[in-house]
Amino acid sequence: MSASDAFPLLFDSSEGKRRLLLDYLPPYDKARYLINQQLMASGYFVVPITPSQVIEDLVPTFYPLKEPLDPSAFRDDMLHELALLYAVFAAGRLLSSAPQEHEANAEAESYMRLCRAALAFRGVFEEASLAAVQAIFILARDIWFAGKPRRREVADKMIVFAFQIAISVSLLISALRSGL
Q: Which burial class, exposed, middle or buried, applies to 55 when counting CB atoms under 10 A from its CB (0-12, 13-18, 19+)?
């Protein structure tokens, strides 16, 4: 994933990138619709995220009081979770429409770009997290479903990448549990 493809990286301040990423959160009702679409359709696929994680963790974090999160409450350690939420939105949009529906694909592509941006702002190598693994896996699936044959090879590579990061995260968690 190249940073230039991720987002307009024109902001030097973390406040600027936070505000810009959060400005694209859809209204609460639309967010719930996209999440429900993803959760309903995801029963047919391997899903790296549980409904309870989306509904009980992500939604309250980014939609307190059913409004998008205020940028002043946003922290850099939330970037991978934000990427995961945008990946879920992209999946919901892709899975709720006909494959040839241009407007839906454009909206899903926008959410995929926001997901990549959030991942780019907080590196997945330096600060690997379960949310980053989940976001990359769902993003790869979204790219696959978007129906662009040339990008399917990229999606396959992203899945392998997600598994490699998952292994390192798993090893880190095991080491922390055993006190190493």
A: middle
**Sign of the four-CA dihedral 64, 118, 79, 180:** positive
Tell me which DSSP letter residue 25 carries. Answer: P
Nearest CA-CA partner of 70 in 136, 143, 21, 109 = 21
User: For tokens 């994933």, what's the residue?
Assistant: 1
Complete DSSP assignment for 41-91:
HGGGS--SS-HHIIIIIIHHHHSGGGSPPPGGG--GGGHHHHHHHHHHHHH
From first to last of its 180 residues, the chain has per-residue pLDDT tens of 444 454 444 445 566 776 788 999 999 999 999 999 888 876 666 667 888 999 999 999 999 999 999 888 888 889 999 999 999 999 999 887 665 666 667 888 899 999 998 988 887 877 888 899 999 999 888 887 776 667 778 888 888 888 888 887 776 556 556 665
Q: Position 133: which residue type?
A: V
Confidence (pTM): 0.82
Distance CA 171, CA 140 (A): 23
Task: Compute the distance between CA of residue 152 and CA of residue 36 in angstroms, rounded to an integer.
Answer: 25
The answer to whether 145 and 41 are in contact (CB under 8 A) is no
Cα 161 to Cα 153: distance, rounded to the nearest angstrom: 12
